[in-house]
Amino acid sequence: MVSILIGDSINSDEIKQVIIIRMDLEMGKGKMVAQGAHASLMSFFESQRKDKDIAQEWLDTGEKKIVLKVDDEKALEMLFRAFQYKKVPCALVTDAGLTQLPPGSKTALGIGPWLSSEIDQITSKIKLL
């Protein structure tokens, strides 16, 4: 948990990672898990580059992850752009096309690890997988 001193009070904010999977591709379960794993690692490395302390604290406190779902590529790309705009570390997974999907298919989005309050501003209405 990150503690930020604001005036005379301390604001504690949980750190988590969110993985968002695109559902219209109808990926098999193994493929879906693999794409989520790619999103997790890619996003972690983005977070580590932006703030090593937040990334390390996430590793030290159980690596909390939430997995959500969106209906289509448009929704996934909109979320990706929103997190980029907010400067929250994120990574969009594009499949190589070696198995189930055509090359270039955008399959998943990894967000964070980052401050939950900043992630939740954008993801709070998205359904769990």
Set down the secondary structure blueprint.
Elements: E1 2-6, E2 9-13, E3 15-22, H1 29-50, H2 52-60, E4 65-70, H3 73-85, E5 90-94, E6 106-115, H4 116-123
Parallel strand pairs: 3-4
Antiparallel strand pairs: 1-2, 3-6, 5-6
Descriptors:
alpha+beta; Bit1; four-stranded mixed β-sheet; two-stranded antiparallel ribbon; 6 strands; 40% helix; disordered N terminus
- In the CATH hierarchy, the third-tier topology is known as Bit1
- For the secondary structure, the number of strands is 6
Question: How much beta, percentage-wise?
Answer: 25-35%
Cα-to-Cα separation, first versus last residue = 25 Å
Q: Which superfamily, in CATH terms, is the homologous superfamily?
A: Bit1
- The succession of helices and strands, N to C, reads EEEHHEHEEH
| Overall 3D form | globular
What is the CATH domain class?
Answer: Alpha Beta
DSSP helical segment count = 4
Uncertain runs are 2-11
Helix content: 40-55%
Identify the CATH architecture.
Answer: 3-Layer(aba) Sandwich
What's the pLDDT, averaged over the residues? Answer: 92
**Structural class category:** alpha+beta
Biggest β-sheet, characterized?
4 strands, mixed
Q: How many distinct folded domains?
A: 1
Q: What is the alpha-carbon Rg in Å?
A: 15 Å
Strand arrangement within the widest β-sheet reads 4-3-6-5
Description:
There is one protein chain. The radius of gyration is 15 Å and the shape is globular. The protein has 129 residues and is α+β, with helices and mostly antiparallel strands. A four-stranded mixed sheet has the order 4-3-6-5. It has a two-stranded antiparallel ribbon with strand order 1-2. The chain is built from four helices and six strands; from the N terminus they run E-E-E-H-H-E-H-E-E-H. It has a single domain (12-123), classed as Bit1. It has helices at residues 29-50, 52-60, 73-85, 116-123; strands at residues 2-6, 9-13, 15-22, 65-70, 90-94, 106-115. Strand 1 (2-6) and strand 2 (9-13) form a beta hairpin. The two termini are 25 Å apart. The longest helix is centred in the N-terminal third of the chain and has 22 residues, at 29-50. It is 40% helix and 30% strand. Helix 1 (29-50) packs across helix 2.
